[in-house]
Amino acid sequence: MSRPGAPSRRLAGRVALTATALALALAGCGSDGSPSNNAGKPELKITGAYMPAPVMDTMAAGFFTVTNSGGADTLTSVTSDLAPDVTLHSTKGGAMEEQKSFAVPADGSLDFASGGNHLMFEKLTHKPLEGEKVSVTLHFTKAGAVKVSMPVKSATYNPKTGH
Description:
By secondary structure, this protein is mainly beta.
């Protein structure tokens, strides 16, 4: 024979236990600014930006490194007053191919370097000269627009040697 009220006490206990577990789970979803809660937010830094002085009046290339100390992002496009068309390119096995976007890995980097990934500035508004600075805006899915000043270096500039 069961005791009167026993099933309702068990049910009440289960409800209280479930409510406590739910409250603890929800408390863990709050944002306290700790790094683990910001893991999804990219932290981008652009370094080493430069443009070799173009040899043609109509086209130029651009290079830089994106270092990301946060969550993953995607570089989707680039704009500049220097050219109405700035496109993203990769080079693999000596073949250049236009890309729609480039992934920027979490806690990683994306390199745009001579012989590899690069920007192509097409239909230049003017031929930039060595010493000039070209304003470029990189557009990322999560980080948004990031402005970069890209100095024009000699046509034979090599960042490894500085010449």
